[in-house]
Task: structure prediction
Amino acid sequence: MRWTHKAAIAAGCATMLVTASCSSSSTGTASSSSAAATTSAAAGTSTAAGNSSPASSGAAGSSSPASSGAAGSSSPASSGAAGSSSPASSGAAGSSSPASSGAAGSSSPASSGAAGSSSGGSGTLAADPFLDKSDAGKTINVLMVNNPQMLALQKHISAFTAQTGINVKFTVLPENDMRNKASLEFKNQAGQYDVTTLSNFEVPFYAKNGWLTPLSPYIAKDRGFDQADIFPALTSSLSEGGQVYGEPFYGESSFMMYRKDVFAAKGLTMPANPTWDQIAELATKVDGAQPGMKGICLRGQPGWGEMGGPFTTVVNTFGGTWFTKDWTAQVNAQPFKDAANFYINLLKAHGEVGASNAGFTECLSAMQQSKVAMWYDATSAAGSVEGAGSPVAGKVGYVQAPVKVTKHSGWLYAWSWMMEKKVANPDAAWKFISWASSKQYENLVGAADGWATLPSGKRASTYANANYTKAAAAFAPATLEALKNADPTNPGVQPRPTVGIQFVDIPEFTDLGDKVTAQLSAVIAGNGTVDAALEQGQALATTVAGNYK
Result:
């Protein structure tokens, strides 16, 4: 099983994310929820041009030719996950071979880079010779989530087309819509999309179902991509049966963000390792600190990867779980109820306006526009919070995910590029993946949009780049600490039937998580009770558990 390497995390591995014995496989997180992201309010098709924020427009998605996506968007590209607090020293990161599952060891991201990395120069690197024009004139279709990092890629896609002659047509959707579309696409092998953003959550059962194209043969030929520079733990978590099926675009954990200036004005101190009780008390004190400012933003939008991500980390640290190791459903158990009541009551009392409709994108906007004083979410959000043009850049502090009865509670996740088995243009699709996850692309984004905005958390060389480590200094230490402490093999107080922090790694969890969070979101909106919602959830979970007993 691909999870063998996870056991080392529980043993206290200090090189999380960079050694195969400390994998980051887990998911369900930081995503956007706005139906808008890159579209115009009219036809649902537009370019990435002119977006002032990830949630700036009106339609449900976008489908746009790559060539038109080159126009400037004023939205800062986010990401910034897993920064390093100081420039890395040197050294080639020894890791797995290109076609392997990433089992070989690699040095720490804070202390070394990989072969071919740049450490603080102009940020320019030679183009990958594999990205030639042998596929010029072809058009590939890419389905992706409307997160800021992806919107930034859409803005820069003309560089890929200029290098390869390959045109790219994007379909960009909010996370819930994108996941549903991708699930149907891969299950039916419709062949509509050449590349899709998925994650390490899907790899094990998608691969076993024969829905994915192995990337290992392409990796072996494309030496310029430098698979050894990808954190082996990510390679391993995106592999099954010795084959690599996905390449990470960025990796992340979760932490608490707060307004340092607001806390200082109120004479308040944010603990480096806060408890949820302390966060609730602080939310009371900072609510109304500025006109229109609420105490905290927590996702309340339905979806296993929207509300379900942060909410499940709260369930874990309150002592709850979706299932016991023997597949006994626990959705109506007292710890799960305590977590749900706490989460919902905090949102009702001090949460963002319209909390039942708020996902990642809405909370990011609320944080940037001083509508909330605190926000618990993905570490990758820090790149947008600190990015050029952000009204709150330099005003935000970052601490560990709050806890209750566990020592840590942050999640782990990696948005990644994958090809379905029935793919129309596999060679051109790989060239897109190779470019989008490359060191060259990171340097392009750093030079154009600001180094803090890199889609980071995946390559050792990123942390050998002094430009990045300097720009990410505000959030790098907290990010690396969160990544190091996340433990997908032991996220709570009891053994689990599968690996995962904010999800249960079974196909049925997507539907289960969507339905339970929909019930809880309704309670946030003032409809129904927590007890009634969880009784319905228990019945659903019991049905799912019956498939595994």
